[in-house]
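User: Please fill in residues for this 500-position structure.
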């Protein structure tokens, strides 16, 4: 299955002029959340990146094994330890007919790095010192220090934007009528209702097989399921685990299950003064949660306990580190030692973003009550929740999913433990020093040793409540051909088709 997907991607690269049938049919996909922006640089969730993958393109993408595969770049080489040269694919056009050149790549990288953009992933690219245009199809990227992960960073982010279009029409116009060079063109976005795309028939690898793609945000699990069963949508995410077996027995529907790269956590705000700055309190919050019961009873086995937020998918994962045990008495003891026997916390949670997120958060709230922690439980609308999270306004704790970033521990660690990152709620100079040291080392052995050291300290400091690695279940109509669920939750619709 994985070999087939990789092979199909390679075929597209080798035969960009392949003559294909005209696009036909409509594909409707139901995700749990809506977009927050039409600019790929300004949002940070996987569900939004599936829109990005359809409308825009990158220098590289990840295959299912986590290897960077060429897209707009055709080759790269290191000129010296801090300078990379990338050759670009020729003949690619944006949806308005403008050619894609080195100017657009330079513009896009600088757009992500511009503080005005407020990209949640800007910290991933701050190592970039300069982007130099050699000719229309060659760029050189200079970094402050050697960076073994630059190619992977580009595979994760930096969607290429149309510099001429943005400059001539203005950025505000782009935010309403975006264009890219991906396989689908933007048609309309009706907030909280639908996002409509149509095939771009001049796509560099040939026209897509589908004429129209519709994304629908449907937060309620049961509503998504009903829409699939009645044929109103063709693909749904986050099937509730207790309904998987029931859905498997229904004609016309396939269930695709895959271990996710997403780790579910409780954020803990250690930036604000108060009890959550005390390590003993944070450890107590971990010991008070019965992860096994949540996985067995709420998720029906669809999860794997985690020690920290780095899963087996990532280079740097430490299998020797074991999860916090369930020990309510130890939790009570730690709270008493810290002087917070009557602790009160706000517990925020989205509904519909992750598999059984609301139900998991409710179970955790109940477990906290059992050890004497009083919980103010709040269900939040996803857009407002993310806005508060990125604005460093999250109150106390909040359920969140740490998604698969670069198939490398640096992706998660730098996102949550580099203090100027938008996602950072815990700052530790020593951990940050080790992350930076690992980031710039060209020796895998040294990087692994550093990641192991970092992981042990993160476990001890408990800046999150570490929960589980998610198991994803997708519902797919049998009319849909060549769609494959991935561990990174991303999908690429270029070779997907729909039968009548």
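Assistant: Residues filled in for all 500 positions:
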């Amino acid at each position: 299955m994985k070999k087939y997907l990789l092979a199909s991607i390679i075929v597209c690269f080798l035969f960009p002029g392949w003559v294909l049938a005209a696009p036909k049919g409509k594909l409707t996909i139901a995700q749990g959340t809506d977009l927050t922006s039409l600019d790929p640089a300004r949002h940070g969730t996987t569900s939004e990146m599936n829109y990005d993958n359809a409308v825009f393109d990158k220098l590289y993408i990840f295959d299912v094994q986590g290897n960077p595969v060429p897209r707009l770049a055709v080759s790269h080489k290191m000129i010296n330890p801090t300078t990379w040269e990338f050759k670009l694919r020729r003949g690619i056009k944006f949806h308005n007919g403008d050619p894609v050149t080195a100017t657009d790549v330079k513009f896009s990288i600088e757009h992500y790095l511009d503080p005005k953009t407020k990209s949640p992933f800007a910290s991933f690219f701050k190592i970039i010192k300069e982007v130099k245009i050699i000719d229309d199809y060659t760029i050189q990227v200079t970094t402050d220090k050697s960076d073994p992960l630059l190619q992977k960073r580009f595979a994760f982010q930096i969607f290429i934007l149309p510099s001429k279009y943005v400059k001539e029409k203005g950025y505000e116009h782009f935010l309403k009528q975006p264009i890219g060079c991906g396989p689908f063109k933007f048609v309309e976005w009706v907030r909280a209702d639908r996002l409509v795309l149509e095939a771009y028939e001049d796509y560099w690898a040939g026209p897509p097989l589908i004429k129209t793609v519709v994304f629908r945000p449907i937060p309620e699990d049961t509503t998504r399921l009903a829409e699939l069963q009645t044929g109103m949508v063709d693909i749904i995410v986050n099937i509730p685990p207790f309904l998987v077996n029931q859905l498997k027995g229904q004609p016309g529907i396939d269930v695709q299950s895959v271990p996710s790269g997403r780790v579910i956590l409780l954020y803990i705000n250690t930036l604000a003064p108060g009890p959550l700055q005390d390590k003993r309190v944070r450890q107590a919050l971990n010991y008070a949660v019965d992860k096994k019961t949540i996985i067995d009873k709420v998720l029906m086995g669809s999860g794997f306990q985690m020690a920290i937020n780095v899963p087996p998918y990532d280079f740097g994962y430490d299998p020797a580190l074991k999860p916090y045990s369930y020990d309510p008495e130890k939790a009570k003891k730690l709270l008493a030692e810290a002087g917070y026997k009557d602790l009160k916390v706000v517990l925020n949670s989205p509904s519909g973003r992750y598999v059984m997120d609301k139900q998991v958060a409710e179970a955790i709230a109940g477990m906290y009550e059992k050890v004497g922690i009083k919980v103010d439980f709040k269900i939040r609308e996803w857009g407002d929740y993310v806005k508060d999270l990125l604005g460093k306004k999250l109150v106390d704790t909040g359920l969140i999913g740490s998604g698969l970033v670069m198939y490398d521990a640096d992706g998660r660690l730098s996102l949550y433990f580099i203090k100027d990152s938008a996602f950072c709620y815990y700052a530790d100079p020593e951990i940050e020093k080790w992350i930076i040291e690992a980031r710039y080392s060209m020796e895998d052995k040294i990087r692994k040793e550093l990641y192991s050291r970092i992981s042990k300290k993160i476990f001890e400091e408990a800046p999150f409540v570490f929960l589980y690695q998610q198991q994803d279940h997708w519902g797919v109509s049998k009319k849909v051909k060549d769609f494959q669920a991935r561990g990174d939750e991303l999908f690429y619709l270029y070779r997907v088709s729909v039968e009548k």
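For context: Residues 444-461 form the longest helix (18 residues).
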